[in-house]
Batch of 3 targets.
Target 1
Amino acid sequence: MASSTHKHQPLPTLHGVTAAPPPTPSTQPNRLSSSDAADALSRLLHRLPPTLSLPSRLSPPTISPPVISISEQNLNLREDLLSSSSELGFFQLTNHSIPSQLAQSAELESLSLFDLPHDKKQQSFPKNWPAGFDDEEEDGDRSGGESFCFDVHSCTESTECPLSSLMEFARALEKVGFEIVEGLSRAMGFENPLGNDGTRSCSLMWVAEGVAGKKPVFSGRFYPYVIALQYQIRCRKYSMLADSGWVTVSPLVDSVLVTIGDIAQVWSNGKLKKVRGRAAANSGNGDKSGCVTMSLLVTQPMDSTVSPLLPSVVAREEAGGDGEDDDNDNSSSKGECENKEKEDGGDGKAKGEEDKDEKRVFCSFRFEDYAWRVYHERLLFKDPLDRYRI
């Protein structure tokens, strides 16, 4: 009878050497410590695209903007404006002359605009860029928001919707805005490029409705400005992209949130911080008014040229040319800026100037070309001023 003894098969060999059995998960060494894992996760989070939504606990903390009193009793108004604008790029104004009742009436009129039928919005507010009705959903924008833009001085009562409170509110904000620009100009040491009475300015009232359920709500086009003003009717938070990164602020009720824009940063030759686009209101808890923002943009006329205005830079331009390249169009690039600097002496100064003179940080460029590009390309996460930096 044959033997039933079980014979073990020999282990596989490699070049005559017996090979060890394959390792199991339990025998694998832990090569990644908890500290290494945390570092890897931190590096991953820093590489995430800015459009990716992160958990709320990773959102920037809410801060209160610096408070500046605009009353005559504040003898340090210019210093306060300069300090907040150069360190943060935003602040809130108190003791201003804008009645809260006027702001509330303007908000009610703004809400009524969005209740109109879509075809009536288009007929009553035809586009005359940048003014008019804008439906971003029609333009293929994912946010799907709607907005109205009014030129404060050219807007008439030809539309069927009464806008008397909204326009009065816009002019009240404009008056405060002129005071801020004048104070900043004097604090920086150059003449107010808008004129003491705003004769060389353009003021746009931008009313935007956000999309429910999105926090923060970003709606409406982006347009370059000197400063933007938003009245705080109720306790509400705003999110904005400053030079220091994303910021969430909660201004005081009845205060005016002021953000410094890209044009002011160029005027100051880079000394002032800025906010890209308008501050966006975080949507409220089912409150429709919480998704509407009324922003007054104090900006420049279309035919303006934007360039640094600091005294030392202006003096050098007068000595070596106006600093503007007549052939510089919307395709201006950093390389073209560098070429212009070489023409002026190779080191950012006009020939014959001493080294103590301040170096230009930005090239001169046409406002209309820049405004058209920012408005249509929606350059929020990429700083549109980078191409004009020297």
Target 2
Amino acid sequence: MSEIYCENLCITYSQKEILHNLNIKIRKNKITALVGSNGSGKSTLLKTIARIVMPSSGSVYLDGKSIHRYSSQEVAKILAILPQSPEAPQEFTVERLVQYGRFPRQSFFGSLSPKDYKAIDWALEVTDMQDLRKKRLSDLSGGQKQRAWIAMALAQEGEYLFLDEPTTYLDMRHQIEVLNILENLNRTQKKTIVMVVHDINHAAKIADHIIAIKNGRILTEGNTKQILDEKIIEDIFGVKGLIISNRIDNTPLFFPLEVSYV
């Protein structure tokens, strides 16, 4: 399996430093959650690792070589990224959208092969979208649309799946559906997942490793029990609260109480 890591990564926009000297190794076959307050740099970090943003200095490495030395098609065969609020023509069917995930692997003539159709069927199946494959995007709920986009990313058959706040704008039920799909992909398919997460409890639910970003720097990183600490969360988000225990499996959850002005 390919290895992705960052060394001394810096991003600067209009002379403003967004990310500073980050060193990160993506853990294979694990779910990594990037957390932090708005403007902390977590989405920029995700895009930089995925080769969408060019670093000002430092490098992202794919198998020991700068990721920017690979072609876009080569990278797309290894990782898929699902941005916030992706867009496609609303008259597209789910199946047509998912077919676009095969683009990096299609032949020069662009026709779909039996292998392509098999990958498309698999992506629709694992996202529970088989029965909706002929539905237009305009006829789907928000949760169904997000599952369709995840299916498109999965159709690329990359080793890595990157997602930028995949549960944003979804109601509670659809948030849980999406998180369950991602967790199942990791546990059963060994898919390596890196995602920006808005809700610390969502990160706690499924992530093996959490990286907390603050002001463009890594504040701390670790597993759920290490990160879900009242003082650490106050440092990350500026919110005071209590750590409570999930009575089903005794995993920690954060209950917010008030804004911290320290």
Target 3
Amino acid sequence: MMSGLNGKALKVSKADIPDLAAIKAVLPHQCLNCSTNTSLAYLAQSLTIQVIVISIGMSIPLNVEILPVWVLYWLVSGTTAMGLWVIAHECGHGAFSKNRKLETFVGYVLHSMLLVPYFSWQRSHLVHHTYTNHIANGETHVPLVIRGNGIDEQAGGEKDIAIAGRLGKVQYGVFQLVLHLVFGWPAYLLTGKTGGPKYGLSNHFWPIAPFSRKLWTKKWINKVWLSDWGICLALFALIAWSLHDGFVTVFAIYLAPLLVVNIWLVTYTWLHHTDTDVPHLGGSDFSQLRGAFLSIDRPYGKVIDFLHHKIGSTHAIHHIAPWMPHYHAGKATIALKNAFPKVYLYNQTPILQALWLISTNCIAVTREENSGRYVWKNPW
């Protein structure tokens, strides 16, 4: 089934991908530089918005009779907090400031506040960028392969196809949405779920046995432990808050919105690297830049783009040049689209519709004969 891309990604070959020098040549010069003051201004913007939203939340009575009001608050607060997540993520890429100590401090504090192990995720996210849409070495949303070998490919695709066929399209789609959006992020942090087979059973909090150490090379092990200190401090703060104001308050003001933040995160990583006619690659068919050009830009609208610093509508250039700060990504995306229209991917399908199409149709992949490409299959 074709997506809004109309099979465009399937028509791109490795030879069509420009090299990094050609890409840099078409980008406005200022796009390659970051400004500490500008980055701090965007941080202040997101912090101010979040403080206002939380202040409103603290004024709402904790009353079950107004549960719809609380649900609306959770959606709004989680959506605005995602802007802070994006800035922390930018720190992990070295795109926030040339002052590395300041950048690390900001990213570490913001991610720890959101219960994200900063250095652990920095490492796994670097792998995700290096091997985007690689069938074995990729680190997020790597699909199961029909008749895969379980070594270079994750076997078990035929089982998922069979399960989907038994459940039916609607039930399977709902199951996948809940599995990915609600449980996907903690499952990834705790077990490396949806990561490729190369790194085995990984854990972002425990970099040694009984979990695999393949993701955590020697220099990263101590950084994982350092990430844990930030999480522990955040948890201690939450426990103290709960003892002072009650767990219900902590749940209403912090935990429920955090679930919405996690849903946004999975939405971005899932939608921007998955579509019914976007392949995964293996062997010599893969290169880092070719994988990056399989990233898909999508329409989120002006409000979400403002709150989330355009992370979804400029995701392709982010993967091609992850050191670029978000406030240059809009101009860089226009330049990229104009210079390389054959390989730039933009899917205009509305986000909720795209989520449903992917959850019901991107079930497992099969390897094309005489090719290093893996394409999606489903039983419908």
